[in-house]
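Everyone, describe these C-alpha cells:
***
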Amino acid sequence: MRRDRHLRCALAGLCLLPGGCSGLLGGGSRADLYRFGVPPAVAAPAVQPDAARPVLILFSGANFEPAIDGDRILTVTGNRAAYVARARWISPAEDLFDDAARRAFDQLMSSPRLVRLIGVPHPDYALGIEVRRFEADYARGGGAPPEVVIETRVRLMRWADRAIVGEWPVVSRERARENRVAAIVDAFDRGSATVVARIAELTREAVARNPAPAMADQPRR
C-alpha cells in the first residue's frame, strides 16, 4: 500500500503559485491535468536477439516523501510551501515517475530488465529509489521562473548475497523558461527524464562491475 496521503495536509494551507500568479490557471474550480515522463514517439532501436536470460532487477516503485507523493504540484519559496492551485498531475507523481523509470530501462538497454514482483526465477538485483525533493523552487523570488529540483537517492542490491553494489545521489535542476504552469511542467518533464536516464546508466554500469551468480548457484528460498 502507498504511504498515507493524509500526511500531505501539513503543507496544503496555501494553494497558489507564489508571486500572485494564480491568474495563470484561469477561473473556476476545474483542475487542469498535467503529466511528465512521456517521451516523444520514436522508432524502437533494433535489438539483437539474446539467448541468455536477461538480468532481472526487482523494482516495486520509488518512495516519495509524503509532501510530494500525490497528484499536487509542490512549490517552495524559502521556508514557505504551497501547491499550485487548480493544477494537478494526471496520476500520482510517483506513478508517473515509476513509468518513466521503466521506459528509460527499456529504451537504454535490453538487459537488465525491471520486474515488479518477486517470482520464478528470482531477481538478480533489487533497485530502490527514494525521491526526497520534487518541487519548483522559487529561490529567486515569486516573480522569476522557478527551478525544478528533483533529488533522489538510489540503492542497488545484489539479490543472492544482499550486498549493496551501488548507492548514488541523482539530482536534476531545470530552470523553467517562464513563470507559467505549462513551462514549470515542462521543467519537471526534462528533469525527470534526466534523472531516470542517469539511474538506468548507473545501474547498468554497477551490474557490469558486480555480476550476479548463475541462478543455479543462488540459494533456494
Observations:
- The mean pLDDT is 81.
